From TrEMBL:
Annotated ranges, domain Aldehyde dehydrogenase: 65-522
Family: Belongs to the aldehyde dehydrogenase family.
Coiled-coil intervals, chain numbering: none
PANTHER family attached to this UniProt entry: SUCCINATE-SEMIALDEHYDE DEHYDROGENASE, MITOCHONDRIAL
Annotated region described as Disordered, given as residue ranges: 1-20, 527-547
Active-site residues from the entry: 302
Keywords: Oxidoreductase
Highest taxon above the source species: Bacteria
Cited InterPro entries: Ald_DH/histidinol_DH (IPR016161), Ald_DH_C (IPR016163), Ald_DH_CS_CYS (IPR016160), Ald_DH_CS_GLU (IPR029510), Ald_DH_N (IPR016162), Aldehyde_DH_dom (IPR015590), Aldehyde_DH_Superfamily (IPR050740)
Polar residues bias locations: 538-547
Protein name per Swiss-Prot or TrEMBL: NAD-dependent succinate-semialdehyde dehydrogenase
Amino acid sequence: MTTQTTAATTPTTPTAPATAATATATTATRAAAAAWPTVPDATGPAAEQAVLDRVPTGLLIDGTWRSAADDATFPVVDPATGETLLRVADATPEDGVRALAAADAARAGWARTAPRQRAEVLRRAFDLLQDRREDFALLMTLEMGKPLAEARGEVAYGGEFLRWFSEEAVRIGGSYSTNPEGTGRAVVTHKPVGPAFLITPWNFPLAMATRKIAPALAAGCTVVVKPAELTPLTTLLFADLLLEAGVPAGVVNVVPTTSAAALSEPVIGDPRLRKLSFTGSTPVGRTLLRQAAGTVLRTSMELGGNAPFLVFEDADLELAVEGALLAKFRNTGQACTAANRFLVHEDVAEEFARRITERVAAMPVGRGTEDGIAIGPLIDSRAVDKAHRLVTDALHRGATLRTGGHPVDGSGTFYAPTVLTDVQPGSDLLRDEIFGPVLAIRTFRTEDEAVTAANDTEYGLVGYAFTEDPARGQRLMERLETGMLGLNTGVVSNASAPFGGVKQSGLGREGGGEGIAEYLETMYTLTPDPFRERRTPASRTNEGAAR
Ligand SMILES: NC(=O)c1ccc[n+]([C@@H]2O[C@H](COP(=O)([O-])OP(=O)(O)OC[C@H]3O[C@@H](n4cnc5c(N)ncnc54)[C@H](O)[C@@H]3O)[C@@H](O)[C@H]2O)c1
Ligand SMILES: O=CCCC(=O)O
């Protein structure tokens, strides 16, 4: 794959309480005070420093940037170089509860705003993000490592949630109907569920935040956001943009922390919290669900995946190869949607493997800020170790190495893009999320065999299938146990579509019309038929007198 291919196909939609005494306010609504010059489409040390200088490094609580309660900070590191980019305030559990108190105090006011007003705030945020897209892209590449072309794709994708939910905010409906007996009228309305705690992962630092914040705000909910400790900078810069777009104090609060579990537990256990939306791994999701049971909290869970990628004997192989490159190597393989198991019909397996190996072997690896890079660093050394352990296990069990298969020497946490064929049943990478640039191929003989293998996992986020037979495509839609299916395409993500999984890949959906419903409560009111004469005591007396 050339970098140009990666860039062109990177999806744009995608086409690619507080112990208050110690917290101190440092700047009042920082964003309003800051002038923002037009950002040049530039990279290099000066551009990097300029964007880092713009990032607020405190906690956002009640519309004010603050230092942490104990003044502690933690470093955010560039995974390509190992160098510290910035230090960020490290929120304590008390800060988390204080942020929730702010969200609770702002709750009623925000819920009462006109939907149009909420829509316009989100639309302004969308416009501001477009103006600053180069800043956000560069910042994501710095803190997360993804190639700049992909980071630009994520700004476009993440921004679409702001635009989509600005449009959805004014379409929160309800219904008025006559009950079947004809004796009454049923009125169904939707209201904001209340303060929401949003926990996001490191792999899509902007889009995973906008995919939660935008529908929550559109619905009229206030939020506390806990970004991943590895990539808090994008969320902090985005929160500042939201203040500038007109989000009132307390509506969005942000608490980066290195103590995710300690901060989250009291917030989740606090009865003022009404909603938890989590994106991350399935094991952490299970823990949070157990905690949420304590207060019977509404939850949305976007969890891990183990996507099958099926190539049938009647597939357009060139299309399948392009789809495979996107489905596997987008974000250097670090996507919940990443194809984890390639199941290829035995008649076309060797040709598919030959073509894909040629492309993968040619992928430029390097720091994401450099021109033409297709494969950036993995997020940290643990991710490199995991990828390598899975590859080594597969090789020991009989797989064949076609290209890659090793960490890249030098600074940074890089893993060579890898293709394995003849992967044997029982190999760990067929069961575990690889979360790295490793493409593992097995073969199958029949459609039944392919479907059985595809469904043989506790996960069910997304699947991909390449076939030129429309009837087979329809059978797969009905038989694959996933929340999403890419049929002859390697990417499904789009702000207008319900994103989410079945089985242990999650609960609920983000995006589409479903996305805002996750932040709304349904209320039903019954009232008597207004055309029936009311049988008041007085009318009953009169009826009796008349008889
Ligand atoms: N389904 C989706 O939409 C989707 C999207 C992106 C990532 N993911 C999944 O996320 C995983 C990768 O992301 P990750 O490594 O950041 O996941 P993770 O579960 O380790 O962390 C996710 C978030 O949870 C926080 N966290 C961790 N332990 C916690 C605890 N005990 N209490 C509260 N918060 C806690 C982390 O600080 C981070 O903010 C993969 O499994 C991937 O598939 C899923
Ligand atoms: O990592 C999972 C999210 C990927 C996406 O939204 O396309």
